[in-house]
Amino acid sequence: MTVTVTEAHRTIDAVWRIESAKLIAALTRMVRDVGLAEELAQDALVAALEQWPSSGVPSNPGAWLMTIAKRRAIDHFRHLKMAERKHEEIGLDLETTQQAIEVEPDEVPDDLLRLIFTACHPVLKTEARVALTLRLLGGLTTDEIARAFLVPESTVAQRIVRAKRTLAQKKVPFEVPAVPELAERLGSVLEVVYLIFNEGYSATAGDDWMRPQLCADAMRLGRILAGLAPQEPEVFGLVALMELQASRSRARVTPDGEPILLLDQNRAKWDRLLIGHGLAALERAESLSRARGPYVLQAAIAACHARAGAPEDTDWERIAALYGELAEVTPSPVVELNRAVAVSMASGPEAALPLVDELAASPALARYHLLPTVRGDLLAKVGRLAEARAEFERAASLTRNSRERDVLLARAKAAAGE
């Protein structure tokens, strides 16, 4: 079957999303330099872009990329006139490429776990740890990361470059931290895992509303971390949150891939097994007898939805209260926006609109498409349809996800009576 260049590039993009983290992790173990490992992986990606449109996608694309990357590594060390022993080590490793690339589907390779802790090392600032790990493990572009953090793309690019340089200069070891250091390193790791999950759950760009593989990767990482830190409530809170949100996946899109809002979803399609796992993880988190952190609180909010058999059964007053508690733990305009939505559901749009109007003045939300989305919804409910249409059109201009843009433009037309 003839494959067009565009189709080949789409396939390569999909393969890269799945294989890039494992590829970079394995290369980092070999060359002991995260920055160099990513460069070698990118070289392999370029080779795929050049060759696969004409030669076709290989039967094992991950192994193909690994082989090319390792050959580039040999060339690199030869160019630097490294010791012959280093050449031999990498050369021998080429013979076991197939073994190195094959991983049990339900396991996260040790290299992957080492990579996330290396990228989240304390020598880096928090924002740099998160950006670098999203880049290396999530395979996200700097633009996608920037949108997740509501900061300029150039800022994220600088963070990533500086982070890789710092790791190399400080000679950060490629390892999972020992138990005494584990607790202090978990916070940024959990943040990264959840951002990876979110990018899979609601893609910031492209033609798809969801990227299930990213959700699956994040949940596997979360479960591994739960095994490493069995007394940390926030780890179980994060696992609960991801599983409760993932339980809705099959109900979140139409057969054509169009997004379905939470209150419009067919709850019979929600995954009861995942809900059970999520509620059990939340119960474990709350049993550890500590003040509730941000992930436990967000999981408690998700549990309110999971326990409601129908939209009208949702305990919106409790959700609004939980968002208020969350705002005290982690002050954020995004949290306040979510609280305003809950207030609207509990007390009506008139009670929530002033809260959203106040947030509209926040510079941090100036390019955040969900702010005009929420404001448009509230304005439509109070009958201010012309203003609602303008807000939905503004939201559509801000989102980078084509599916979401179509929905917002349709809501704008509906507000105008078209």
UniProtKB/TrEMBL annotation:
Could you list this entry's UniProt keywords, alphabetically sorted.
DNA-binding, Sigma factor, Transcription, Transcription regulation
The RNA polymerase sigma factor 70 region 4 type domain is annotated at: 116-167
Q: What InterPro entries does the annotation carry?
A: DUF6596 (IPR046531), RNA_pol_sigma-70_dom (IPR014284), RNA_pol_sigma70_ECF_CS (IPR000838), RNA_pol_sigma70_r2 (IPR007627), RNA_pol_sigma70_r4_t2 (IPR013249), RNA_pol_sigma_r2 (IPR013325), RNA_pol_sigma_r3/r4-like (IPR013324), WH-like_DNA-bd_sf (IPR036388)
Give every DUF6596 domain span: 185-285
- UniProt keyword Transcription regulation, yes or no: yes
Please state the span of the N-terminal signal peptide per the UniProt entry. none
Q: Which residues form the RNA polymerase sigma-70 region domain?
A: 23-79
The family this protein is said to belong to: Belongs to the sigma-70 factor family. ECF subfamily.
Report what the protein is called. Answer: RNA polymerase sigma factor
State the species of origin: Amycolatopsis tucumanensis
The beginning of the lineage is:
Bacteria, Bacillati, Actinomycetota, Actinomycetes, Pseudonocardiales
